[in-house]
Amino acid sequence: MDTKKKPLFIAFSSQKGGVGKSTFTTLVASTMHYRLGYNVAVFDADFPQHSLVKMKARDLAMVMENETLKKLAYRQFTTINKKAYPILQHKADNVLEAANEFAAAAAVPIDVVFFDLPGTVNTPGILKALAGMHHVFTPITADRVVMESTLIFTQLLQDVIMKKGETSIKTINLFWNQVDGRESTPLYGVYHQLIEQLGLPLMQSQIKSSTRFRKESEADSRTVFRSTLMPPEERLMKACQLDLFVAEFLKIIQL
């Protein structure tokens, strides 16, 4: 009898590109795996770009070229005594089967598998993949196009996939990203009201806008934010309130 604990399947997903799906997958996976002691794996099913597979290759090259990052990485991996989390390239149509097979064969029990999925519901297999998630997190910004696209996507998940009953989804969670702390726009109030009327769950924590979300480690970098090999530096996490987001994220998934 297979008594191995099955991992949680989690996706940062949206129908709108450029809102931070891959970035949040990396940030949360790296925080959990390298800092919080969980074992994670990532399936990059965002065909054809597979940006996370490419990011890991760039991160490896950057660590080898940057003496500061090389020392940080050496210290980290000798302290935690485990390898970098795997990022596996796959297509959406049978990614659930591949993830289950990987978890069953893994030498160490996997706590969470993150999925970086395509940003369009027209992709073959995407609805099946989404239905196989336990938790879906969707970043939103105070932009009309982003909001319209996201609300349609989220209602599709709630009204079509979840109500049919053939799904593993326990929660769908919207959260504000790229919030400008210097700006008080009435749009936030309007969108909050609309989200409430639609009965959609909105996380309390908000991610403040930062150029760090668009930057990977550079040749002369002395700190790490977005990396597949190391967790984001704690001071940088606090600056954009990513620390509060991760705390709320962990409460939701109840690992």
UniProtKB/TrEMBL annotation:
Domain CobQ/CobB/MinD/ParA nucleotide binding: 10-218
Transmembrane segments: none
Name of the protein this chain belongs to: ParA family protein
Species of the source: Flavobacterium qiangtangense
